[in-house]
Structure formats: C-alpha cells, structure tokens
Write a structure and sequence with these properties.
By secondary structure, the protein is of the alpha+beta class. The protein is built from 2 helices and 7 strands, in the order βαββββαββ. The chain has a single domain, classed as Roll (Hypothetical upf0131 protein ytfp). Strands 1-5-2 form a 3-stranded antiparallel sheet. The mean pLDDT is 91. InterPro entries: AIG2-like_dom, GGCT-like, GGCT-like_sf.
C-alpha cells in the first residue's frame, strides 16, 4: 500500500466516491515546513479556487491533513483527477510516515 497525504478536496467523502468509488480510511497528520497558497484553476464552468502546498521558508509552518492508505491504481486515479497545476512528490510527515502529496507544479 501507498500513503497519500491530503490537505484539500480529497478529504471529502463525496470526492473520494467520485475518484475512487469508495471512501478511504485515514489518520490525521501534519506536513512541517510547508504552507498553503491560493490557486485558481479553470474548470468546466469557469474559474475555481483551490489551495496548493508550497515549501515555506519558515520550518515551523504546518499543513494539517489526512494520510490515506491507497493502491497504485488509486494513485493513478488521483493523477488524472488533479490538474496539471499539481505534481506528485514524496514527503516525510511529522509522524515519520513517507507519503505522496500533490504540491505546486
């Protein structure tokens, strides 16, 4: 199993059903040394506001989120779901868990 850290829309059970056709189980965790930045993405019905993780110059900044157990097939579905404004990289969370995260491309 892979670990996926989500700080945004993928925490929503409705979005999880849309992307994975199931609800994921997860645990709360934190990403240190990163912050959230506003991002506008053009969607079918116009512009939508989202957030994206970016490295911070302040190592005490924290992004709160959830870590989910996912399969490689699930990660492929998220790759399709996320816009090209995001890239998937591995990070080490506060708990020591190594997880995939989608951050600014």
């Amino acid at each position: 199993m892979e670990q996926l850290f989500s700080y945004g829309t993928l925490r929503s059970k409705q979005i999880q059903m849309q992307v994975f056709n199931k609800v994921l189980t997860g645990t709360a965790d934190q990403l240190l040394g990163y912050k959230l930045k506003s991002l506008q993405i053009e969607e079918e019905f116009g512009m939508a506001d989202y957030v994206v993780a970016v490295a911070s110059e302040n190592p005490s900044e924290i992004i709160h989120g959830m870590v989910f157990n996912v399969t490689l097939a699930d990660l492929a579905k998220v790759d399709l779901f996320e816009s090209n404004a995001y890239k998937r990289v591995q990070v080490t969370l506060k708990s020591g868990t190594v997880a995939w995260i989608y951050m600014e491309n």
